[in-house]
Amino acid sequence: MNSNLSRLTLGIAIIALAACSSTSQPGRSTSLGEDNLKGSGFLADIYPQMKAGDDGEALRLYRNPKFAASSSFVPYTKVLLDPVKMYGSPSSKLHDAPQAQNDAIAQGFYQQLREQLGKDYQMVNKPGPGTLQVSVAIVDAQEADTSMKAASYIPIPLGLPGAKAAAMQAVSHTSGKPPFTGQVTIEGKMADALSGEIIAAEIDRRVGARRPVIGLFESNTYDSWSDVTEAERYWAELLRYRLCMRRGASDCVKASE
Hints:
Layout: H1 2-17, E1 23-24, E2 51-52, E3 60-63, E4 78-81, E5 85-86, H2 99-117, E6 122-124, E7 131-142, H3 146-151, H4 161-175, E8 183-192, E9 198-208, H5 226-246
Parallel strand pairs: 4-6, 4-7, 5-7
Antiparallel strand pairs: 1-9, 2-3, 3-9, 7-8, 8-9
Helix pairs in contact: 2-5
């Protein structure tokens, strides 16, 4: 009876947790934090105008002071979304992934952005009045080491888990991400589609989050690109939320981590 109950409990846990996944921004004092963001060239002459973001903001950002008021965003009712580009520097880990995989990552991000922005804006394919032009590039991405990531959840003999946890925590605090997880860095800008004037720009990075104990049963633990695609989902939801807030709306939906 107890054996059957245990199997049933385990089955429920697997089903309940199969879709769970999360990402986070790396600590700003780590090797993946702000000081490591040199810029890929995608944002061209915007880099000198960027500054470190505050907590809850992108790692680096630029906001055009001319668009500080909510009333500046109210006239915009359309979005021209450029295809998401893969814009890796020579040192980017994008070059280690197959082209087909890079294409899938870029297209997946484009679809996430289009889906979210399409909830509030008319999506168009050419510049016009009242149109925001959104341009995004993935400048670095690294898949998770799924075999090692899964193995890192397996309990080890009594007396050692504390040492194991301390070692994992030390790596996370130094590098900015838990061992074996994935990471992705993007650069993006938003402009008035007619004038080309830059409204805002940012550089941000997210890494996979580690979930002790239950992580062994998450299906995403075994998907090497799930950390990247989950970060893309979060950024798409976040862009919709921020635009909603900038318009001064009252029904804005926060992005879920």
